[in-house]
Amino acid sequence: MLRRLLAIVALVLFASPALACTLCGVNIQATPTLRKTLGDSKLVLYGTLKNPKLNAATSTGTVDLDIENVLRSDPFVTGKKTVTLNRYVPVDPKNPPRYLVFCDVDNGKLDPYRGIELKSNAAVDYLRGASALDAKDPVAALLYFFRYIDHADAEVANDAFLEFAKADDRTVGEVAKKLDPEKIRKLLNDPQTPAARIGLYSFLLGACGGDQEAALLRSMLDKPSEKAREAIDGVLAGYIQLRPREGWQLASDLLQDTKERSIIDRTRIIHTLRFYHGWRGKESKPEVLAGMKAALGTDLADLALEDLRKWEWWDETAQILSLYGKKGYEAPLMKRAIVRYALTCPRPDAAEFIKERRAQEADLVKDVETNLKFEKIK
Q1: Could you give all domains of the chain from N- to C-terminal order, each with its CATH number?
Q2: By C-alpha distance, which of 295, 291, 371 is closest to 339?
């Protein structure tokens, strides 16, 4: 029961995002990039804070911003060198902080809604360059952001990585082969690199590296550190780039290793398959399908079923329908997954399967049909 509950959690937490990098953490993908926030803002200012005033009775206050750069202008700041922000920020007069401030202007009133403290004005140049990028050339955009992915200013480096996290799998895959492996290797070896970035960096390294990088990635798979274990999807994706035959076989082996590998570890291998489907769906279909077939024989069968259904890959329909009600597939979650697959599948044997299920389990079929209709509405 616990293992199936974990599988349900995995389905929610690790579902393949439609328009974002599968190898990047889902949490970071909800954060807007600086480029996006800049485009959505009426006014964006960069400057130094001074003169903080706190109203102790209301715990509110103000602070002044000496304007050094205007990245997005509004008539509100015309002719002004300083503006007052209706936010209290403590300031050390000997070392006043520099801030990038995103604002709305409503009825002549300034409303700062996001402020980022910066170490230098590097973010200003970074954002000016980012805002000039051609939206129709996402590969060129990621090449630009890669220049800043190891920047000394953490905010700049974080945002550059976020741009990769927001990119789709196809774009990430295309840009990877154009990158500098030495730079990526340094990031991977840096103990300060967050675990959430190891997966992406590992894939990028595999796409542009050689024998040395293949050995490194294989060692990360065979004897993973805690960080590498959390990023096994990206590490494997990179290894497949350098050692395709061994890598794809390893993917199937890991998916079926229910003794040594946890359900979370093996769910991350599903991520690898999803990434290759998103990047090279046609070219890698035989290998991805082989991995999904391996997963069908494990407690991750429901995840594999759902991906095959969404991708409209009906190659294994006969095998999938034959699983219904068998030992290991009799749980309600698994039965619903198979019915869900069959309701979407256009093949005659799927239609016959649903006909039989309606006769024997009408409520189950009706409930799954309702959920599918709700999914289409969403």
Answers
A1: 2-19+168-313 (no CATH), 34-120 (2.40.50.120), 316-378 (no CATH)
A2: 371
